[in-house]
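Example 534.
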Amino acid sequence: MKIHIDQVGYKPGSQKYAMISSDEPFSTTVTLENIDDSTSVELTVSNAGKDPYSGDYLLTVDFSQVQTKGRYRLLCKDCEPSPVFEIGDHVYANATRDLFRMFYFMRCGCSLLEKHAGVYKHSCCHSGRVLRYTDGVMLPPIIGGWHDAGDYGRYTSPGAVAAAHLMYAYELFPTKCPSLSIPESGNGTPDVLNECRYELEWLLKMQFEDGSASHKLTSERHAGFMMPEEDKSQFVLYMTSTMATADFAAVMALGARLFRRFDASFADRMQSAALRARDYLYSHPEMIGFTNPPGCGTGGYGDRSDTDERMWAFAEIYRLTKDARDLEMLTSLASVESGKTCLGWGQVGGLAGLCILFAPTDTFPEELCLSFRRAFLVQADRLRTIARSNSFRLAMPLDAFGWGSNMVVMDHAATLIVATLLSGKAEYASLAEDNVHYLLGRNPLDRSYITGHGSNPFKNPHNRPTASDGIDEPFPGLVSGGPNAHLMDAACRELIAEGTPPLRCHADVVGSYSTNEIAIYWNSITALVFAYFS
Ligand code: 9MR
Ligand code: ZN
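Predicted structure in complex with zinc ion:
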């Protein structure tokens, strides 16, 4: 028997549940102990039956009525006590800060200073000349940006999406975005934007003369497990894709909008880059996809459709230009019914939604706003039905646990938060918070999927610096990819049997890239969600 709980804590006014599991039907009694004053209350336990997500029999314990701040643990007659957790107003504050700070640690092409990175400092990486794939010409170095993930590649679309998550977090919840103690801190620009600028300056260099954007800048093969500055492989600037170009146009337009009041000339540079990318999209209505050319084995980030990327681009561009032609393009792209709430690296319709739904009144035609509003509310209701029908209260379908499932868990939380912002109904945000509790340890593995937070965080991310810096603890604030029921690497297959219930398909070992890698766009959407709750 085991108690599953958010290991960090709960806010006083929030709903508070814990789950108790066993591999056979059971019953028990549970008390909540206040560690600070040694008082206890008996809790009612309700039987939730067998749960297909974990394969366990579950009981649910509701202690929502306890609102007194303090430190607590759950005691159960037949098992180990739960870890100590907090009820408090600021339970998410530290994790939120580290989720945003993660991006500093991912910076490429500069040294990470001891002042900011502490023991994780390292010298400058990836600053050599680059090879242009299309003609084999050697170009001057293209320096900057964030390493994508556990590898050292830098990819345009994932980078644009991650920066956009952070910028929308800033736009929606400006006072919730933390100070980050990064080299630019104190320069008059909010730190979250300072950190985004590190990526945006690099993205600007990914634009070709014709206005299109290169799909990616990576070596041909992933480096071995070495520190970034030791990786001397040749970096290659790959060809254009329309997916990358549209994401580029969108994030540049968004950046131009948000940076205008802090640095007008930087905003101008982004605005003109966005418009040149837009013009490329006008003259190339056909999709130019991307698949790795022969010999290239780094991330592909392919996509089946670029309609959603174009839709996001034209939403942000029209918000900037108010040009009738851009609106016409946007309206026709937005006539699609599906995908209007997606927030992941490959499906960005929801980002168009964030742009459109939170723009000043009368920026976009009412019908367009309504179609996105409907999409978010319909999706939120769908997620509510799912969350109510499983014992871990997860707004996540049983079959959605693939590579990077934690991104989907957080995307859905973000969708639910948007539904609360649109409707004023707190219930949606409460469902979103249940997904947060899952991430912070309320899951069958009792594992916090954020390094450094909770009593049992994962410790062995598939992340090259972590595995080669000689330091035991990974840097804090990394989000694991999360359970992947398809068990797509040998390391997890060695530890987990085929057919294991989805929530158990996570291996906290360095080799498991399909369950335990890290990635900027997993962190960024998590940062947005945590900013809301913090
Ligand atoms: O996050 C990506 C995931 O959705 C895909 O299923 C997977 C396989 O194509 O690739 C993931 O992205 C990886 C990228 O290709 C290379 N850098 C590491 C990324 C995270 O695992
Ligand atoms: Zn680097």
